[in-house]
Structures are given as structure tokens and as C-alpha cells.
Specification:
99 residues; mainly alpha; 2 domains; 4 helices; 65% helix; elongated
């Protein structure tokens, strides 16, 4: 009588299965930019963007433009990963200011 399930058949050797899933994860994540804050960004830069967004953004598009403007004024060579990290921090501060 045969048993089918995760412990038998193609999945009976968990080490091999884990190595395959690890390899797939590495391939899928290889093209993703690192999301690191640009060097030298201080809380004053973030709060400047926060205040500008709170005072002037009427739409999501406005918000994105304002955040991007503040980042590029600080670092014109910022990567897309830098932009993601900066935007996340600005949005986090906006959220915390509304509590």
C-alpha cells in the first residue's frame, strides 16, 4: 500500500526541497532594489517632507511628487530603493503624527 503526502514521494527529502525553494527565492529576489535610506538623511529632512505633504498634498499623486522632490533635493542620484525607503519613513511619520 502506498502513502502519498509531504513525507513520501517527491517531498520525502526535505533538505533537497528546501534547497530548491531557497534557490527560487534567490532568483526572484535578485532583481529587487535594496531599500536603504540614502546616507546622511536626517530626521529634519524627513519631517520637512512630512510637513510639505500634510500642508500641500491633495491627492496620492501630489504626495508622491512632494516626497520625490524632497528626496531629489537632498540626493539627485538616489536609487529607486532609496526612494522607497524614504517614502516609507515619510509615510510612517505622517501616520504617527495623526495618532
Amino acid at each position: 500500500m502506498s502513502r502519498n503526502g509531504m513525507g513520501v514521494g517527491a517531498f520525502n527529502n526535505n533538505d533537497e526541497f528546501k534547497s530548491v525553494t531557497d534557490a527560487v527565492s534567490q532568483v526572484l529576489n535578485a532583481g529587487k532594489p535594496a531599500t536603504e535610506m540614502p546616507d546622511g538623511i536626517e530626521m529634519s529632512h524627513i519631517m520637512g517632507a512630512v510637513n510639505d505633504v500634510l500642508e500641500n498634498a491633495a491627492t496620492f499623486e501630489d504626495r508622491t511628487k512632494i516626497i520625490t522632490k524632497h528626496l531629489l533635493q537632498f540626493d539627485p542620484t538616489a536609487s529607486s530603493g532609496n526612494a522607497v525607503a524614504f517614502e516609507r519613513e515619510v509615510l510612517k511619520q505622517i501616520s504617527e503624527s495623526r495618532r
